Amino acid sequence: MNQVISLPHADPGTPDLTSPTAYLRWVGRGQWRTLVVAICFGVVWLVSQALFPAAMGKAIDEGIIGGDGGSLLRWCAILVGLVTISALSGAVRHRYAVVNWMQGAFRSAQLVGHKAADTGEALTRAVPTGDVVATVSSDAMRIGGLYDVLARFAGAVVSYVVVALILLSASTPLGLVVLIGVPVLVGCLTFIVRPLQARQLAQREESGKLIGLGADTVAGLRVLRGIGGEHTFLSRYAVQSQSVREVGNRVAGYQAALDAAQVLLPGLFVLVVVWLGARFAIEGEITAGQLVAFYGYTAFLVIPLRTATEMVDRATRAHIGARKLTNVLRVQPDQVEAAQTQALPTGPARLHDPVSQVTVEPGRFTVVVSARPEDSAALADRLGRFGATETDVRLDGTRLADAPLADVRRRVVVSETDPRLFSGTLRDELDPWGEHDDATILEALSVASGDDVLEALPGGLDNEVEERGRAFSGGQRQRLALTRALLTGAETLVLVEPTSAVDAHTEARIAGRLTAARRGRTTVVMSASPLILDKADHVVFLRDGKVAAAGPHDQLMAEHPDYRRTVVRGEED
What we know:
By secondary structure, the chain is α/β, with parallel strands linked by helices. Helix content is about 65%, strand content about 10%. It is built from 21 helices and twelve strands. It is found in: Cell membrane. It comes from Terrabacter terrigena.
């Protein structure tokens, strides 16, 4: 990622990463208010339905069998009231269930986004890109689904207790059957859930690999077509797709068993309770109205039982998603803030890298040449406090590693050789913080020789940039990235091969304009281009990552054969 733009850091309320359960509790605590509201209405919604059979039984016993018209009307009115309460509370419960689902899902996705911004390249080194994408697109939604069903599950538990107490008061055997039978039936589901969880985890792993493979293929499609490798990667994708299908089939068997259990177990339970109730009615232990009520209770208990099985299923999926998400959250950034920071010196200052012995004098246009581009790229990372290893670079004696990271990013800006563009308007892409007017943006664009890029866009600065800037050529993306770096106005600007993808005429224009625009400010360019070297105030030549020679370009060309070979080879390329 181009290191010019500073992205937001992780949420300060970072959750406990010890376990997926701890993470799910953290998400729940963050939205406890809407959860409480949803649970309250979920309880009212199901308890009001649980009382339907009681009202119907009373209407039958007192109104129809007892011949009391007043009682019949009264219990019918109560039944209508319960139906109204159930309808209204159900609507509110559903609304807050959706709110909880979206909050849980998008808070998780947002947290992954903050973590990705905070860790940068460390994340992709530790976790495959496909897994990160799947965490946002799939796992976050599974986590949100747990909080969607939570309100209904709470209502199911309370309504189950209410029904059990009513049955106990009317018939102790029936009440005990309900109190004991429901937990036993739910416990039977563990024999399905455990293997289902293992197979869902395997499916999640294979899906992540498939997403990563697809992303890599799309990103490198132009290269693949250039070398005729489309069929090879298509075959790899087909093989991985079949792996996902196979593990999906293994998941489907247990998922089907769980879905069948949601119908079979409640159905068997209803048969048992109705059979017992019918026997008690025949023996005169309960009334006809109570028998109707018992049947209503058993039919109603299908809802709590199915909700319990759904809760088990959602909790299993959420636990798997939370496990993958916590793997992302455990990744630590390459650079962390020191416990006690030191302020950087004010004003222009000298940069010194003890590893390579490179010293960058303030206010000069310095070019670093290396036969191995990875050595100069590593130097750029150290100068900007990037990379996996802690830098010992000093700014007038103050270690960058001891300074506040935000100050380092503001004072030293590094723009890498692989420019990354994001979707949005071109104006927002070049000036993400909106600090400059159009005239300033156009001036920086002219320095980067990007006038022709702007002229080709019908909307000018308001033109939409497509994802990853795919509508632009490599040279155009490079010039836009240089414009973005220039607009930061950084005290020290480090550019890695900023003109490697442009032609010689454009490179010459950029070199001349860049030195003029940055005159008086510190600029470090990693390049072996003679067109840039001709404009340099000072040139540093690296051999095996160390300073081998330093001085004016003409002097180094005359006195150092290794330097001359490196530059001439670059010119021939």
